[in-house]
């Protein structure tokens, strides 16, 4: 989460049962007081019940539950993570584009086990937004031309979120093993990244997964503006300040 998200949640004045803002507000207030023991109202188990988490010892997908938190949070608080993405198809005969638009919380990037080479997040972004051409047996039907035609299709962000989340899809189905596997290749993560339509984002957090599909552990490395842009490691109940910047400006990090 971010300082803006926390401040929006803590400005909440009238709790709504449909949202979990009031639960997050109570939790943030207890954390800011530096308390070790929770009051009944700020008990984290209330949030777990609201998120329908029945077993805290069972591994869950971080991206899935992050989206679940945002969907159960009020629109005012969650909007900084909320973007709009269009699947734009352009008929190459009449040149008229048609858009299929919808909201998104993160952009999924397909990883490839590249035989010892690092996966490039920048190249992954470029591939995600690369235009695909449909022709031959793969022609698409155009309602304007009333026939199958050659066409191009690409993703276009029509509303850029304040905070962009990239999900590196490390779990994929292997036809060799006929099961899901984890892709363990290293990834080059840039300090800043440029998204089409000339939007630039600066890295401020990384979530890391250790383990495999059946079990593992998540931890996060986050930059806090409240602490003068210091970086911290969040590892369950342990929060540790790093003595160095793990993500130097203008450098790619493996």
TrEMBL record:
InterPro entries cross-referenced by the UniProt entry: Papain-like_cys_pep_sf, Peptidase_C19, Peptidase_C19_UCH, USP, USP_CS
GO cellular component: cytosol; nucleus
GO terms for MF: cysteine-type deubiquitinase activity
GO BP term, pick one: protein deubiquitination
A family per Pfam: UCH
Residue ranges of every copy of the USP domain listed in the record: 1-254
Protein name from the UniProt record: USP domain-containing protein
Organism: Gambusia affinis (Western mosquitofish)
């Amino acid at each position: 989460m971010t300082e803006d998200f926390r401040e929006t949640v803590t400005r909440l004045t009238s709790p709504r049962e449909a949202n979990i803002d009031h639960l997050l507000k109570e939790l943030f207030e207890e954390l800011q007081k530096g308390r070790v023991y929770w009051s009944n109202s700020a008990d984290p188990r209330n949030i777990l019940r609201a998120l329908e988490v029945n077993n805290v010892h069972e591994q869950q997908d971080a991206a899935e539950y992050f989206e679940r938190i945002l969907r159960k949070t009020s629109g005012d608080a969650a909007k900084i993570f909320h973007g709009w993405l269009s699947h734009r198809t352009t008929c190459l005969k009449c040149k008229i584009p048609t858009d299929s638009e919808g909201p998104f919380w993160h952009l999924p990037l397909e990883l490839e086990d590249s035989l010892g080479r690092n996966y490039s997040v920048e190249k992954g972004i470029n591939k995600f937004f690369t235009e695909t051409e449909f022709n031959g047996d793969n022609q698409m039907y155009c309602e304007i031309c009333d026939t199958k035609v050659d066409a191009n299709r690409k993703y276009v962000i029509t509303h850029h979120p304040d905070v962009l989340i990239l999900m590196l899809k490390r779990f994929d189905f292997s036809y060799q093993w006929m099961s899901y596997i984890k892709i363990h290749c290293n990834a080059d993560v840039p300090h800043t990244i440029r998204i089409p339509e000339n939007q630039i984002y600066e890295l401020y957090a990384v979530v890391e997964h250790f383990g495999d599909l059946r079990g593992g552990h998540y931890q996060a490395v986050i930059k806090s503006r409240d602490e003068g842009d210091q970086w911290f490691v969040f590892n369950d109940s342990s929060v540790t300040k790093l003595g160095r910047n793990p993500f130097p400006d203008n450098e790619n990090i493996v």
